[in-house]
Amino acid sequence: MLALFIGVVPWPLLDLIAPARPPWSNWSAGRRIVSDEKPLALLPEIFLILGAVLTLLAGSFLPRHRQWIARLVAVAALLGAGIAAAAALGDPIQSVYGTTFIIDTGTVFLRLVVVAATLLVIGLGVDELAGTRRESETYALLLLSALGAVVMGSTTDLLVLVASFLLGSIPLYGLIGMLRSPGAAEAAMKTYLLGALFGIVLMLGVSVLYGVGGATAYPELALGLARAPAAAVAFGLLAVLGGLMFKAGGVPGHFWVPDAAQAAGTPAAAFLTTIPKLGALLAAYRLMTVMPDSVDWPLLVAVLAAVTMTVGNLAALAQTDVRRLLGWSTVSQVGYLLLPVAVVGGTAAALPALLVYLGGYAVTNLTAFAVIAAAPGRRTVEDYTGLATTHPWLGSALVVSLLSLVGTPPTAVFLSKLGVFTVAWDGGFAWLVVIAAVNTVASLFYYLRWLGPAFRRDDSMEPAAGLAPFATAAAVAGGVGVLVLGVIVVSLAPVVETSLGAR
């Protein structure tokens, strides 16, 4: 069964994936791990930072009706980052600038997904942002926050983890408040206060782990923590995980997510419920690889996963605002994504399961937000009455995205969710899989509560406003992508299972 979800990983990446042990050990099966200070190894990140600066400068000197040039600069920077990231496929594992930044399968995959997801966010937000006062600033903040997510998921040093936390968080505050409405101001303030609190908690945890481990770099930290008092290690780990859960939108740092998703602009809401999770969850995975056996950290992560998915789903059941519903839905998704993190080192398939789910979730969640952006006049589930009959393509995209979030075949999240369930079961957390399965069934109710009105015809309702063309195109493209990715995974699964059985 493990082979079912490994099939989604491209073959060059599949060749790099190995047992889930620290990247600085000899898990690369004979590959030489290069450690060097090579700036060009960080070319995707350089594209992102330069793109943010140039986008901001371009917007500062362009009239409002020509802000589309700043958008092109941002898109060009993302395309450059994506090409540079794809060029690293199959390269040896590199530890750049000492042991602060690792370029391995996880980093390459994260770069590609973050770039693709940010491009989709810009696409679905064109109609809302074009010609506004803050258009170029929004694109610059998107690039900076995306850079923070990439660095957070790729670092192997606690100090860089703190810096990337700040780099990814501060632009989010601006993105949420960019709409300049009372609700957006409240959501931005709540996010800022929670971000400051959990940032302090994160730095406290880093200080404790550094104090008892004697190092911030993961290779030396792993050795130091093995001899450290278990209570101190547990406290430090809990604090660092708390900070990462704020970024991921999981318990206990989840309170800001539904408010921000409801009040922020649609591009900002789509971004903040997707991209920060990618970096935070991969960062959590990397951190678990250095935790000693003296601390029962798998149980801690498993409890966080169970509580997060349950809280998210129970809260979503009562929502009528579609943005707030998706906000709580993204909280529940963090619970499922924590399953492979709980079994790091217990099964070789934990990393591919996490990466595949991250990719499938990103395109699925952004497709759902693209549907919202395409019909900006519809705020509640009842407002979507008749959507499938009046706009069948958009209705189809909504169906595909919501059923994919549930994990229905043949969508992208289906085998991804099956994969994380499998690794959790193989890792000895059968009780957690049962809880996840129950939560998956529960989530079906609030997704169907949204889909029901969309297929119900009501001639008494007034005609809705026209659709946003760019967002509609993004929604349809995302829906097709969700289906194509799901079909590819299903078709490749038997081939991969056969090849793995022959090894």
Overview of the molecule:
A hairpin with a 4-residue loop joins strand 2 (94-96) and strand 3. It is built from 21 helices and three strands. It is an all-alpha fold and 503 residues long. It has helices spanning 2-6, 11-14, 43-61, 68-87, 105-129, 135-154, 158-177, 182-213, 218-226, 230-248, 256-263, 266-272, 275-288, 297-316, 322-341, 350-374, 387-390, 392-406, 412-426, 430-454, 469-501, and strands at 34-36, 94-96, 101-103.
Layout of helices and strands, plus pairs?
Blueprint: H1 2-6, H2 11-14, E1 34-36, H3 43-61, H4 68-87, E2 94-96, E3 101-103, H5 105-129, H6 135-154, H7 158-177, H8 182-213, H9 218-226, H10 230-248, H11 256-263, H12 266-272, H13 275-288, H14 297-316, H15 322-341, H16 350-374, H17 387-390, H18 392-406, H19 412-426, H20 430-454, H21 469-501
Parallel strand pairs: 1-2
Antiparallel strand pairs: 2-3
Helix pairs in contact: 3-4, 3-6, 4-5, 4-6, 5-6, 5-12, 5-13, 5-16, 5-21, 6-7, 6-13, 7-8, 8-9, 8-10, 8-11, 10-13, 11-12, 11-15, 12-16, 13-15, 13-16, 14-15, 14-20, 15-16, 15-19, 15-20, 16-18, 16-19, 16-21, 18-20, 18-21, 19-20, 19-21
